[in-house]
Structures are given as C-alpha cells and as structure tokens.
Amino acid sequence: MKIGILSRKSSLYSTRRMVEAAKERGHEVRVIDPLRCYMDITSHRPSIHYRGEILEGYDVVVPRIGASITFYGTAVLRQFEMMGVFPLNESVAISRSRDKLRSLQLLARKGVGLPVTGFAHSPDDIKDVIKVVGGAPLVIKMLEGTQGIGVVLAETEKAAESVIEAFWGLRANILVQEFIKEAGGADIRCFVIGEKVVAAMKRQAKEGEFRSNLHRGGSATITKLSPEERTTAVRAARVMGLNVAGVDILRSKHGPLVMEVNSSPGLEGIEVASGKDVAGMIIQFAEKNAKPHNTRTRGKG
After folding, report:
1. What is the CATH number of domain 117-179?
2. What is the 3-state composition of the chain as percent helix, strand, coil, each rounded to the nearest 5?
3. CA-based Rg of the chain, rounded to a whole angstrom?
4. Are 192 and 220 spatial neighbours (Cβ–Cβ below 8 Å)?
5. Contact, 235 vs 257, CB < 8 A?
6. % of the chain residues with pLDDT over 90
7. Which of 55, 85, 106, 252 has its CA 20 to 30 A from that of 119?
8. Quick one: CATH architecture of 182-288?
9. Numbered ranges of CATH 3.40.50.20 in the chain
10. Bigger pLDDT: 74 vs 220
C-alpha cells in the first residue's frame, strides 16, 4: 500500500513509529506536513498539491493532526476522503472528538459514564453551576486546552468562583466537573483500535499534582482492565466514530467514567508501558480496512 502520514514533524516518536511499522510490513510511506498542502476543491477532480507536486495514488492516510491545527488539518483530510483515500480516522470524527463539549454531549446521549459536568455562559449562574456538579472541590477545564493545560482544581467554592470569573474575563469557554477523589490522581489510558482495547496503562500524577498527563510529569505503568472498563472504552470510541482512539477513564465508586476521547493518541507512553507494538497493530488495521471511498462516519455528524 501507499500510505501518507499527516504530521508536522517526522521526528516525533509517534510519527517515526508509524513510518517504521509501515516499512516493516512492506508499504510505501511518506510523512506529509498538512500545513504545506494546498487544495483544488473542484467537484469533478479534487486534488491535493504539496510542495509543487500533486499527491495521488495513496491507499491510506493516517492523520496525526495536532489540536492547534485541527481546522486546516481536517480540511486536508476531507480532501483525501473526497479523493477516495481511506482515512485511519475520519475528519468528522476528529472534529467531533476535539470539541470537548460536543463530545461529552454525544457520550451522555449514548449513556456512557461521565463525571457530572456543568456548562454556563453568564457570571450570574456561577453559584448554581457549582451546585450542579456537587460543590467544591471541583475541576475547571478550558474547552480549548490540551495535555492538561487549562485544567484547574479548585479546592473551595470561593476559589472556584474566582477561577471561573478569571477564565470568563479572558473570554475562554470552560467546563466545570466534579472531582473524582477516589481516582487518587490517576487515570487509565485505553488504546482502542477498531472494536478492541489493544493496550492500557495507568497514568499517575506526580506528588502534589492532580493531572496525570505524561507531559505534566505523570508516570505510566501497565494495568489490567475490568470487562466494564474495556466495554466503556470501546463504546466511547464508537460514539465518536474513531477507528483509533485513546480513551481516558477515571476509576470511580460509580464505575468507569470517561474523561476524554483522543483522536491522535501518542504511542510512546503506551508502547513503553505495555511493551506492545501498537504502531504495527494500527498498520494491520489499515491493511484490513483500506478500500477506496470506505469513509462512512458511524453515528451522527
């Protein structure tokens, strides 16, 4: 197969591993910077131009699109889809998962377990939205934040009011969520490919920190999932319409709660913690499913 990987940097661990896995299985692979692509979007023969040449003949496109370039990156991916190239994750599914509010609403509609979450616009409603999520301590999240940036734990209601007012003063949209104390500063990253969790790791926040992101200094260890946790992770990925996803779950006294569904999950942490060739599994999935114009989005757009 001829595989294109949409990534800003070929030196990134996840991009590098995807290239290695594709080559090991005998495929032709190329890393394509989505921001250097420009498009002819005419309906009779859509095309993508890259550094002066036309990209054609691709069987699979693997999107490794960072959150900061979601808009343009998904536009490029859509163009590949219009050309009949099989996308590992579809553009609609990526856009859906990147919108934290929309993704939580979709998950809630399908009955997937979530932390109690509030969303408001008016400063007059701060006290009520804090009550909705059960009061302090609580977690405040910027909708546009990634890798734990823009996430604050407010220990008291007064602190919560101050943080919410500060975010709104910056015209930032925020979610307010209950704090799952029993999780102990840990979450579970479930790596889903197709309809199966292929690897999982427990991410533990460093001392004095509640965010378990590895970028924030958290540590990762292999963990065993319960059947309910596996089912929850697969359902969450399916609701988003993602073939490949990193589903982050909190262990609560009410069962597994989905915190986030990531459409471009990093490979380094999960491969090191699990010892599994996750990149190879992704390429195997692409081999089995890559057919021209095989781009139906599961669920509603």
Report:
1. 3.30.1490.20
2. 35, 25, 35
3. 20
4. no
5. no
6. 60
7. 252
8. 2-Layer Sandwich (3.30)
9. 2-96
10. 74
Task: List, for residues 150-204, the tens digit of each pLDDT value.
Answer: 788 888 889 988 888 888 888 878 889 998 888 888 899 999 999 999 999 998 8
Range 2-96 has CATH code 3.40.50.20: yes
Q: Please say whether the beta carbons of 5 and 73 come within 8 A.
A: no
CATH 3.30.470.20 boundaries in the chain = 182-288
Residues in the chain: 301
In the chain, CATH 3.30.1490.20 covers 117-179
Query: Which of 1-5, 113-117, 130-134, 142-146 has the weakest average pLDDT?
Result: 142-146
Phi then psi for 3, rounded to 5 degrees? -115, 130
- Helix 91-98 to helix 100-109 angle (10° resolution) is 100
Q: Please report the pLDDT score of residue 168 as a whole number.
A: 82
pLDDT the model gives residue 142: 82
At 172 the pLDDT is 78
The separation between CA 184 and the C-alpha centre of its own chain, rounded to angstroms, equals 23
- The DSSP H or E segment spanning 301 is none
Tokens encoding 18: 């995807």
Contacts of 51 (CB under 8 A, 6+ apart): 36
Amino acid, res. 123: P
Enter the DSSP assignment of 71: H
d(CA 157, CA 221): 34
